[in-house]
User: Fold Lipid-binding putative hydrolase from Paludibacter jiangxiensis.
Amino acid sequence: MRMKSIIRSLILLCVFAATFVSCETYSDPKVDYSPIYPLSGEWRVRIRNTNADTLVSKTSMYTLGTYNTSDNSTTQMWLRTTSNIPTFHPTSTLRTLKSKISCDVTGLSFSTTGIIQNLNVTTNAVIDTITITEGKVTLNSVSMPSGVMSDRISFKLKKSKSPGVTYLVDGYRRTRWNEDETFITFK
Assistant:
């Protein structure tokens, strides 16, 4: 009987001691951001032909990535689609966009003029160039179905293969919540 009491007391003492040891608090870890954050990120975008006021796809969102250059420049970033998008030319096949563009981190803006998008490596002939204007990121401006606020990205895109046509690329920072993945009716 006395042995059970001693064992019970030891167990209670161990639980009590473990409680105080496990309540140790730690500070939040330091997060290292890219030099162009908050311009960098993964975005879900839709593409609108502003001349015809129609979406390139009424049911699809495209994935776009913006990320820093290898030299960690604060004045340039990469813009790349990670999903196939129409090249906005009726006789073309699906392609992706990848361009190094100018950016202003403090102004949350970006643009470029006449960047070579497609180059024939055999003949070294330029196949297509792009111009991006009015590029901007607006922080915490899209209310997502998951209940969180997300950042918005938008820019106008012109392609030499589609003269006279301007496309509006508009979207939000990807949250990876399931209910946000197919969200296309944001304002």
Q: What stands out?
A: The first helix runs from residue 2 to 22.
